[in-house]
Amino acid sequence: MRRKxxxxxxxxxDVERVLDELYATAPxxxxxxxxxxxxxxxxxxxxxxxxxxxxxxxxxxxAWAANLLLRAQPTESRRFLxxxxxxxxxxxxxxxxxxxxxxxxxxxxxxALTRQAATLARxxxxxxxxxxxxxxxxxLRAVLADEDAADQWxxxxxxxxxxxxxxxxxxxxxxxxxxxxxxxxxxRKDELAERRxxxxxxxxxxxxxxAEAADRRLAERRTEQEDADASLRxxxxxxxxxxxxxDEAEKRSRAAADAxxxxxxxxxxxxxxxxxxxxxxxxxx
Length: 285
Hints:
Blueprint: H1 9-23, H2 27-43, H3 47-54, H4 61-72, H5 74-92, H6 96-123, H7 130-145, H8 147-154, H9 190-284
């Protein structure tokens, strides 16, 4: 049933799925795929959907890789977004202990996810240059530092590289962390301190697990690539061996055909000689 004055909710979901598919398309094929999807929407009488599809801008290679990462690794992506929320909150409240703990996680997780994005892009047929890898890392740092950047990445439809805000410390740590606010020791309850410690340990453990899982997947992909290369080499060697056997079989076949032809010729000459001998014998008799 169509909502009064609006679009059918099913159609709205359809165009969202179409846009998700479009932004998962590699940049070299993006424009042709966009035109194809827009034309299909127009043919179906969905002019507004066609307009939205046509308005989609082709992403850079780095932005596309960041979109791939979000879609291919939803669990790690959710943890990464949560890490960003906690890091921004720590800076907002000037919590030096939290900042130090979360900043350590930030560096390792950004590095691991950047490598994973590169692997996903390579598996899809597009290797990322060093500049593109730096753009992916910049985008991930921006997601940690800025809520708007996090919201943009969470859509899976980035079009260009995101840049961290200048007032947020970079991964290199060139900006000093703010000092903790002074508070009387009596106000720091043991229970609160324990909860915070457990929370930090839990975040650190999850970050390490995410980084280790990313590294394992990277190693598995490399192993799969090496196995595929070895299989290709074996197949090529088998093909060469089969070709040699085929060539040798053809030579033997040609030799056998020549021998058959020669035998037939000899048999024919023998028959002719016998017939001639029999004729002469008959004449002599």
